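User: Hi! I have a protein structure encoded as tokens and I'd like to know what sequence might fold into it. I'm fairly new to this, so please keep things simple.
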């Protein structure tokens, strides 16, 4: 039976090629790739995305669906849980590249089912929590940047904006995503092209990292 890779590409660092390379490096043989680009995993359910709808039409019992992590399916707790359970009801096996997890409907043991369902819920909750934390850091960063503007006076030009950030907004988003998946600092640096020091600065103070971009209007 065929193996499908579904990729949701939301930043410059989360390219389709990168997600496929990761999957193949983990030992998956990919027969078909389905990808959505530039869609929100928070506000747009999988079935509402153009390629997400096609994925639901394509998958059959016995097929395997590979995703880098469950957050590629979405960042809304209920949507991710409902999606994975629907695929399992259809007889589709869902596997993740990160952590090498497998979700299917094979077991009939109630304890094993409970553990499986709890893990799905935990991963879905983590995906939503990480997304909400990112949005909160963005809001806080913008407020911090506004406060610095206010210090310069009404209509005044800011004389000192600090050092220009060495990362882009896409890189900042990618670092936050990977930190939320417990990816190591060295691996994040390699995947995003940033230095380890920069990754540590973002990890230690995400609000200041966001503020730096806002101050420089990046």
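Assistant: Happy to help. Inverse folding works backwards from shape to sequence: for each of the 218 positions I chose a residue that suits the local structure. Here it is:
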């Amino acid at each position: 039976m065929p193996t499908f890779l579904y990729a949701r590409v939301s930043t410059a660092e989360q390219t389709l090629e990168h997600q496929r390379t990761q999957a193949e490096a983990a030992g998956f043989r990919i027969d078909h790739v389905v990808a959505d680009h530039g869609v929100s995993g928070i506000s747009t359910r999988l079935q509402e995305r153009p390629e997400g709808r096609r994925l639901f039409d394509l998958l059959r019992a016995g097929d395997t669906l590979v995703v880098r992590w469950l957050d590629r399916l979405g960042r809304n707790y209920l949507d991710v849980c409902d999606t994975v359970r629907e695929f399992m009801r259809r007889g589709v096996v869902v596997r993740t590249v990160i952590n090498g997890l497998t979700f299917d409907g094979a077991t009939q043991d109630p304890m094993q089912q409970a553990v499986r369902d709890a893990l799905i819920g935990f991963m879905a909750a983590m995906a939503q929590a990480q997304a909400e934390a990112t949005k909160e850091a963005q809001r806080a960063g913008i407020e911090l940047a506004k406060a610095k503007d206010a210090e310069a006076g009404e209509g005044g030009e800011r004389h000192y904006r600090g050092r220009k950030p060495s990362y882009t907004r896409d890189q900042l988003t990618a670092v936050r995503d990977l930190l939320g998946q417990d990816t190591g600092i060295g691996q994040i640096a390699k995947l995003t092209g940033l230095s380890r020091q920069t990754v540590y600065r973002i990890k230690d103070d995400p609000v200041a990292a966001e503020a730096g971009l806002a101050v420089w209007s990046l």
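A useful reference point when you look it over: The first strand starts at residue 3 and ends at 9. Feel free to ask if any position seems puzzling.
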